[in-house]
Amino acid sequence: MSQKHFLNQFLRKGNKVGAVAPSSRFLSDKMLSSLPIEQCKLIVELGPGTGVFTERIIERKNPDCTFIMIELNDSFYSSLVQKYQKEGIEILHDSASNLQEILSKRSLSQCDLIISSIPLAILNKELQNSIIKTASDCLAPDGAFVQFQYSLQAKKVLSQYFSKIGIRFTALNFPPAFVYTCKN
Ligand SMILES: C[S@@+](CC[C@H](N)C(=O)[O-])C[C@H]1O[C@@H](n2cnc3c(N)ncnc32)[C@H](O)[C@@H]1O
User: Fold this and answer.
1) Could you tell me the domains of the chain?
2) Which among 10, 63, 66, 131 has most CB atoms closer than 10 A?
3) Under a CB-based contact definition with an 8 Å cutoff, are residues 58 and 87 in contact?
4) Ligand 1 mutation target, pool 13, 46, 125, most atoms within 8 A of CB
5) Cα 132 to middle of ligand 1, angstroms
6) Strand order in the sheet with 177-183
7) What pLDDT shows up at residue 14?
8) How many other CB atoms are found less than 10 A from the CB of residue 29?
9) CA 96 – ligand 1 centroid, Å
10) Nearest by Cα to 178 from 169, 32, 122, 35
11) Ligand 1 binding pocket, CB closer than 6 Å
12) Cβ–Cβ under 8 Å, residues 99 and 70
């Protein structure tokens, strides 16, 4: 179901979705397994799509943790609301570039984790920079911004905003993907 939904949105919205299929469980493991999700007070997910990473975050997060999801696509947003609204999670139909305003309206600022699937490679430079800068500005001092991409191209722009970047790779995804773990 989530595969069909994804392909359907890719065919309709193409570039804005950024992939033809949801991420694999192997990419999910690379993104999330080493992160201290249980200890976090504030987690933000950017571009949750059909919720592949969301499921894993919900399974592991502390009940007191504030979890905010930001999804731009109308159809993914509606189905995320149907699936997760009851879990007490905040699901927003908005752009990742508005993260700072979204947090300050809620008197929040310092995210322990920002998990991002935003298709940086297909965004214009201005939006790409704005999303990455905002994510860096909204991180707690020892927080992490975790982003996957299908190439190493993002390293250059990420290194303008983060001082530490770790990169891992999985071939077990379509397409194969690089996971960037960035800290200020
Ligand atoms: C490559 S898909 C990944 C979806 C899902 N997290 C996964 O791994 O299967 C990228 C997602 O980012 C969303 N997206 C793209 N630009 C966005 C933006 N500016 N703000 C929020 N979401 C955005 C797309 O609608 C899509 O759901």
Assistant:
1) 22-183 (3.40.50.150)
2) 131
3) yes
4) 46
5) 14
6) 90-93, 66-71, 42-46, 111-116, 139-149, 177-183, 164-170
7) 63
8) 14
9) 9
10) 169
11) 16-19, 22-23, 46-49, 52-53, 70-73, 76, 95-97, 117-119
12) yes
**Distance of alpha carbon 15 from alpha carbon 30, whole angstroms:** 24
Ligand 1 atom 19 nearest Cα: 95
Q: What is the mean pLDDT of each run of 10 residues along the chain (184 residues)?
A: 78 76 96 98 97 97 96 96 86 98 96 98 96 98 97 97 98 96 98
The one-letter amino acid at 97: S
Structure letter (DSSP) for residue 23 = P
| CA 97/CA 178 separation, integer angstroms | 22
The pLDDT value given to residue 86: 75
String of DSSP letters for 140-178? EEEEEEEEEESSSTHHHHHHHH-SEEEEEEESSSSS-EE
Q: Residue 72 carries which side chain, given as an amino acid letter? A: L
How far apart CA 11 and CA 73 sit, in angstroms, is 13
Token code pair at residue 37 = 């999700």
